[in-house]
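S.,

Sequence below, as promised.
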Amino acid sequence: MKVFITGAAGTIGESVGNSLAALGCDISGCDLRPSASARFPIAVNDLVTRPDLAPLLAGCDAVIHFANHSDHHRAPADRILSENESVNAWVFSAALAAGARTLVFSSSVQVINGRDSYKHTPRPFSPAYLPLDGHAPPRIGESNTYARSKLSAENLLRSLAAQHPDRGFIVLRFPFVVRPEAIDQALSRSVAFSTGHEAFAFLPLTETGPLLEKILRARLTGFRCYLPAARENLLFLPPHRALAKHFPHTPLRRPLDTLDSLIDTTELTRDTGWQPQPLHWLSGPAGCRRRALLLAQDLAGRRWSGLKRRALAATTALRRAFAPRIRVLGTAHLAFPARAELGESPLWHPTQNRLLWTDIPARTLHRFDPATGNDETVTLPEPASAIACTPSGRTLIALQDSLHWIDFPNPTLTPVLTTRLDGPPNRLNDGKFDSHGHLWIGSMHIEGRDRTGSLFCVHPDGRIERKLTDLACSNGLAWSLDGKTLYFIDSGDHRIDAFDFDPASAALSNRRTLLTISPILGFPDGMCLDAENKLWVALHGSGRVLRIDPSNAQIIGAIDVPARNVTSCAFGGPQLDTLFITTARANLGPAQLTREPDSGGLFAFLPGVRGAPPV
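The prediction came back faster than expected:
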């Protein structure tokens, strides 16, 4: 059987492709970038540009369409809807033209999840009925254009099935797809793993391959819609307890005493022979530990109970209690009302006399002139996470997984490397040059879930070294004035680390913790150094920038910022006497934005000290 997979380098696409290849299927696929761990060929292309798919689909028995919008968590809503609908129609028509007998579509339309959109806190609601299956009506908020595009694709497939009754058009409403190691990583860091009511409809990643194999071999015809899910729920509640606690007013399609799960896969089992397997990773000592920790999360009220509100109030009170211990230097003022989704990587360019910074999800490079207050923007082809300047003054910009020189005044991009630094599921993050021209740049999981990030060093001759691995979110970088110490932040570890550093060879040694930042104070993010060899660290979630003395690891001052999600900071201005501060408005709800309307703005503060001279 010859099968083609779009989105083949993604987590589910790669797992399915490898599984089908192991079963003897002829597998190929396409994605925006290749994958080193895929055991089948992946063509690199962007479906948004409508590439010619005919050569890739020639002779295929089945096409599995996993591809999603590459930036569906942060891209503008209208672009998500239009580009996803265009891509879906293009793939469906190409599959039909190639003679594919089965077309499988991965739909993430949720029928039990309480999200109104990806940028707002989940809120509970009762599903239409229980137990749920693929026929359940979806619950989609008007602002959730990503899910609306999925529903539009389902309707298109239903229409195509009526025109081609001899072919199979299969919709899989994939719920929360989980891996046991991801649960372990989240729980070991006290991160809430189950997201809203997705906890009641989930599927182990290891089940995706066998599921698709059963569907393809069944050679189904017509339109089919399934909700493949495990029988268990992540809170390990028996159905009657889950109903009483979370869905007390939901109508039942079966008597309570016959209900063994909140998800009904009877039709899927009848049509294909697939059955959800028992979760062996929830048994034994390790399984008992996972169960206990997940149940503890529920008891702590991370999602559904009023304890969450009280916990947030207590956290705020604790932050206020800590505030008197830190000398507040003043409050930053709004320099430019950018309303950025995720402002990052401020950099003062000495020859342009401009502050360069990015809005990552908006794919925008900003050039701010503090003398006039003007802010020019440049649209980029991909999300841009970092801007860095070489010792000679040339500007580099890091896109999602590639590096480019950017030349002014007419911005043009020139690739720095012929290879990409990192790939799915990661994107590049913060980066800077050291005094000898080595570029240091980190990566992170694109959705911030797993510790898949690394810290890379790109030498002037193009040689690439992976210096650190197993990072949650590689972030702030700074060097001491003598260049012999590198300071580094992995935001997920809540600390600032120090390394002995050899500027000539870029060798690191003697890693040690300089300062642990209590979660009460927020997450350490971007970082810079002043002319007195003191660090300035942005605290995401607390609306502050800390000044830290590395000689004794003491917090010696703080700047208040009228926006809680502070992302980074850098000294700028002709005299390097202004601290510029970027912020974000992503993931803030309407009430928070009402209280902090300048979130996403560019702020400035005169700290009374100058920044360290450029490298």
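Residues 77-97 form the longest helix (21 residues).

Coffee later?
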